[in-house]
Amino acid sequence: MKLFLVLFLCATAAFASEADSKSLLPANSSQEPSTKSFYLFLPDTKEETEAIIKSVLPTIQSDQYTLKTANKIYVEDNLAIKQDFQKVATDVYQAAFQSIEFAESVEAAEEINRWVEEQTNDKIHDLVSPDALDGNTRVVLVNALYFQANWSIPFKPVLTSKATFYAPNDEEVESDVMFIESEALNFYESEELDAKFLQLPFLGEGASMTLVLPNKKEGIAVLEKQSADVLNVPEYKQEFVQVSLPKFKIEATVDFENILENLGVHAAFNPVVADFSGIAGAPGDIVISKVTQKTFIDVNEFGVEAAAATDIVAPTTEPPPATQIFTADHPFVFYITVNDVVLFEGRVLVPNY
């Protein structure tokens, strides 16, 4: 999730000239263009942004999990992209370019969606609708993110059983709940957030899923209002924890136009004032019309989008009894990180599987 936003914001802001960056400032702002980082959480200069991205991308790869981050920029056939933009997109963001005729909207959408399916192991379909493309479309930025990893401490399928999950609006649903009797894991309970944190490691150094469970069954709404604190790494203590976690699959589509507009980003969507001439064309030629992200995640006994592992050796001795209990039987937040880079962030309201 995060890498898609980084690509989009960098392609429209960090690549941009001073005139371009003003399009990403909140309306009626008197701030200088460099302060766009305050609103969009980017570094102050495009050089800093480029340096960070270039240093981060190599650190999130491993031979023990699969992470594919594929970026592609589709450009209208008759639009000349400026060389500086092409160089940074290719060298820093590892993005490929492809010319396409957006007026042929059905064929163009099929071409883009086929590429996305290939990059995500056929898990994400129909990212771009033909209705979103027409003869006025100039540039489409696409980021495909695919992650597959096995738990370093897998759940035993034989222990998975049916249990009640307390969903919003007093709904009770039956779910397949995975179980660990006792295992040494990073655990933290936050009084400020009134929530428990549990870190489940993957095979591969620095990769893990963090679960944030509010103590109150209806506490998810309060927790989501404090997302910055939720994403801060707590002062974990390794404890023996009993874990009950439902299996879940999530396939979601998010349109970011309203989110960005709520942050005050208006000019970028307005052809009268938008100026991305640092990318191509003249002021007003490129306008952001749609920013869409589609995500698929599958959490089971073996990991995320994972099959049964054959090379995991079970411990020969039983661990001590659990001193903490983590029972995810009501809505919770989760996020996946690799070397402190947040790849996925989401919530489970109803654990469909």
From TrEMBL:
Keywords: Protease inhibitor, Serine protease inhibitor, Signal
UniProt GO molecular function: serine-type endopeptidase inhibitor activity
Pfam families xref list: Serpin
Record bears the keyword ATP-binding: no
Keyword Lyase found: no
InterPro entries per record: Serpin_CS, Serpin_dom, Serpin_fam, Serpin_sf, Serpin_sf_1, Serpin_sf_2
Domain Serpin positions: 1-351
One GO cellular component, as annotated: extracellular space
Signal peptide range: 1-16
PROSITE patterns in UniProt: SERPIN
Family label: Belongs to the serpin family.
PANTHER family: GH10112P-RELATED (PTHR11461:SF211), SERINE PROTEASE INHIBITOR, SERPIN (PTHR11461)
Protein name stated in the entry: Serpin domain-containing protein
Protein's organism: Zophobas morio
